[in-house]
Amino acid sequence: MKRKRQVSPAGNKAGAGLRATRITRDRARQIAVMAQLLDAKRPRSILQVVRTLGFLQLDPTAAVARTEHLVLWSRLGNTFKPADLARLTYSKRALFEHRAFIYPASDYPLLRAGMEDYRGAETGWRKRIREWMDVNEPFRAYILAELEARGPLRSRQLDDKAVVAAWPSSGWTGGRNVGQMLEFMSAHGDIAISGRDGNDRLWDLANRVHKTDQPLLTAEQAARIRAERRLRALGIARPEANLRSFGTWSTVGGVGVPVEVEGVKGTWVADPKLLRRPFEGRTALLSPFDRLVHDRVRLLDLFGFDYRLEIYVPPAKRRWGYYVLPVLHGDRLIAKADAKVDREESVLRVPALHMEQKTGPRDVSAAQGELHELATWLGLDKVKVEKLIKNG
Length: 392
Fold this sequence. Notes:
Elements: E1 21-23, H1 25-35, H2 46-53, E2 56-57, H3 67-76, H4 82-91, E3 95-98, E4 101-104, H5 108-119, H6 124-135, H7 137-150, H8 177-187, E5 191-197, E6 200-205, H9 206-209, H10 219-234, E7 236-237, E8 243-245, E9 248-250, E10 257-261, E11 267-270, H11 272-275, E12 283-285, H12 291-294, H13 296-303, E13 324-329, E14 332-342, E15 347-355, H14 361-378, E16 382-385, E17 388-390
Parallel strand pairs: 1-10, 15-16, 15-17
Antiparallel strand pairs: 2-4, 3-4, 5-6, 7-11, 8-9, 10-11, 12-13, 13-14, 14-15
Helix pairs in contact: 5-10
């Protein structure tokens, strides 16, 4: 029976009346790799990467390097300099930091749409936040006044003026009123991160950091754009998969074209542009937070790659290591490299390089070659692989 490949018209619900295109699992992986800019055609700039991926996750864990830097290095190679990311974010304002992510400045309206939802929340966690902020309105007003007169400011330069109750939490945020109020005001769009002094964030009024006079998107417009951006960044996904994008969690339902992946149950949606693009792969080391490996279910379905972050796992129970970098080679994930930087000895130490099943000497060579590239970028003199583990 002849297969039909059709593209869903803009604005139509993906898959409505369309027959799914059948693709191999190899092709599904290639689409995912190309969407994440990890194929042989490297992107040209930091801005291109962030605009295509939608965002960069920030994380301070740096056994090798900060995750946002590793993600950019994986795409751009050894020309990437962390200082360039900071300059684009805090000086040029081409990017901006919001709630542990970096976004393109042009996408601020998508964040604002989510901020409006945050303000009007009537149930759950967001209602609890809104109620706490309402009773502490004088505290909020004090912060706005201080920033207006003195900003940008660090959190420790502001006094705790909670008037009713400390922020209730049994975790590390319990009683941290200044920090929590700043986070909530940022989520509401009142204030924004203006810059950084080391690890300290500098807070200022949002209208000094962002162009806040841009037209607001409706909830429907924002949801559609977010879904399109998510699918562009993922390439292929299950329509119902709950994914983060622009400060919210939702699905890619309603966009893309339906596909069936041979050997995998269920229907997927794919970016129609990537369905037709030829693929040429390369080798790349990935951050543990990289979006190619973030969805563990999709990772198993398409790549057959069993992986999880073991930072918070007791050492005796870890299967692969503390900070393990997945190794991509072409459209396959071929290894897990437990890596850490030893600055004193100028060595990238790899306590264990775990090779996947059905890998051979060329795969080992590719993985080790990329570890040497990483060491070069980090300014280290050598790589020491302490144990090579072959799993089949």
